[in-house]
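Quick one: structure for this chain?
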Amino acid sequence: MSAIDARGLLKHPLRLVAIGFGSGLVPRAPGTAGTLTAVPLLFVTAVLPLWVYVMLIVGLFGLGVWVCDETTRYLGVHDHPVIVWDEVVGYMLAMVGAPITWPVIVAGFVLFRAFDILKPWPIGWLDRHVTGGFGVMIDDVMAGVYTAAVLQLGIALGW
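Got it. Here's what it folds into:
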């Protein structure tokens, strides 16, 4: 962590978003910290109609492509661990249509982190082959899609 300029990340508005408002700077498990950053955002947006929530995620994804691309270029490293906006958006996507209860929030969190870390196909392939801001974002979006599918299946089966 000493090799990066934390002040340069915190002072620049685009980079500040990319690092999850500072959560990406934690020394251990920055992706987990970034995902935790999404939980309060989830509560704030839970009152939105589903279509508005989905449009918000689309907008947050577009913002993420921009801020992650700029921050990747600034750091000179593709998908540096301090960049966690992809986790924020991926988790928000994971929770689409899910009831906002603590058991579902925790299940979604654990599933999303598992898919993001284990990177089953095509998540791992996307992570290795797609570059730029889109590349930073797309693997976590797929992890969010996988998580949403598992959550919705679990909900449909009555867990």
